[in-house]
Amino acid sequence: MINLLDFNKAELIRFCEDMGEKPYRARQLLRWIHQSSRTEFMEMSDLAKGFRQKLVESAVVRLPEIVSDHTAGDGTRKWLLSAGAANAVEMVYIPEPNRGTLCVSSQVGCALACSFCSTGRQGFNRNLSVAEIIGQLWWANRLLEAGEDDPFSPDAVRVRADKSEARRPVTNVVMMGMGEPLANFDNLVIALDLMLSDDAYGLSRRRVTVSTSGLIPALDRLRERCPVALAVSLHAPNNALRDVLVPINKKYPIKDLLAACERYLPAAPRDFITFEYVMLKGVNDSVALARELVQLVKNIPCKLNLIPFNGFVGSGYERSDPETISHFRDVLMQAGIVTTVRKTRGDDIAAACGQLAGQVRDKTRRTNRREADQMTVAR
After folding, report:
1. In what order do the strands lie in the sheet with 338-341?
2. Can you give the pLDDT at residue 122?
3. What is the reported pLDDT for 373?
4. What residues have CB less than 8 Å from 127, skipping those under 6 apart?
C-alpha cells in the first residue's frame, strides 16, 4: 500500500494520473490530508466515489505512532514518536505569544557525533521517511487544535473546519530536532515542499529553518532546490576547537563552510545567516574567543544565537555562567553583530536544545566504543 504522506504535490499529480485521474485531484488530496487532517479516503467528500474506492484499495495515509506526550511547566510540549524496531524520535512544540514553533527531527539518532549533543551520543540508526518527517507537523497541528479532546472526534474535526477563521497552531518549523537534516536530503526537501505548499501547510520560506552542522555539498544543493532560512551550528571560532566539538569540521573546515554560507545568501529568504553557538563553561566562552569570532564572521551578514548549554547525564560539559554569557554577547554586539541569547525552554522534560535523545538502536557501534574507552580509562 502506497503511503500518500510520502508524496509532495508533483508526486501526487503523477500518482493520480497513473490512476486515470485529473491533476487537480492531487490538490484535493493535499488539502484533505494536510489541511483537514483526514486519513480516511471515504471521508473526502469532494472526491468521486470511484476514485475514493480505488484509493482505499491501493493507498493509505499512515502516520508515525505517538508513544508519549509531555508538557513542561512553561508550556513546551514534547512528543515521542515510534520509528519501529524499538526506535523512537522526539519532536517539540514551543508556544510563544505571537507564534508557535515546532522543532522537527529528521533522523533516528545522528552520525555526526557533536560532543555536546545528547542525540549525537546515542549513535545513529536510519533516516526518517518523508511521512515520518511531515507526520510530526501533521500530528502537532491536529493535537494542538484538538486541545485535550480526542483529535479524531467530531468536535475536534469541527474546530479545524474553517481555516479562514482559525490560524494553525504551528506557525514556524525548525529542522533542529534529532539528526542532521542535510544528511537526509532527499526526504527533507520533499517534506519542505509540503510545508511550503499553499495546498498543504502554506508556511513561508522565512518561517521554515534548516539547521546544519556543515554538510557543504548538501547545503549547496539546498540553495538550488529549496532555499529556506538557514541556521549553522558553528560553536567555535577556529578549526582546532570546532574539530573537537563538531567533528564534521575535519572534513568541511570553517573557511569552506563560511564560503558555502556566502553562496547561500543570494537565494535565502532572509538577508542573513544565523550562526548557533552553544555556551560551554571554560571551553568556548572566553572573551578572547568572542573577539576571534567577531573577526571570523564580520564580513558575513549574520545573526549570532548564543545557546546556554542544556545538560544531560554523562555530557562532561557545564553551562557557562550568566555573567560569562553576557560578556561574550557584549563583545559581539559592540562589534555590530546582532546577538541573542536563547531562552531555555522545556528543560524540565528534557526538551531543550541539545537534549533530545529518543530511543536509538545504534548501528554505528559508537556507544559500544565509548563504553569500552571509558572502561579503559577507568582501569
Report:
1. 66-71, 77-84, 87-96, 99-103, 172-175, 208-212, 229-233, 273-279, 302-308, 338-341
2. 87
3. 41
4. 106, 107, 108, 179, 183, 184, 187
pLDDT digits (tens, 9 = 90+) for 20-34: 999 999 999 999 999
Instruction: State the pLDDT at residue 363.
Output: 87
Cα 173 to Cα 135: distance, rounded to the nearest angstrom: 13
Point out the catalytic residue in the list 110, 226, 261, 353. 353
φ, ψ of residue 335 to 5 degrees: the values are: -85, 5
Of the residues 90, 145, 180, 276, only one is catalytic, namely 90
Indicate the average pLDDT of the chain. 90
Tens digit of each residue's pLDDT (9 = 90 or more) over 157-177: 544 444 433 568 999 999 999
The beta strands (E) that lie in the chain are given as 2-3, 59-60, 66-71, 77-84, 87-96, 99-103, 107-109, 124-127, 172-175, 208-212, 229-233, 273-279, 302-308, 338-341
In the residue annotation, 90 being an active-site residue is answered as: yes
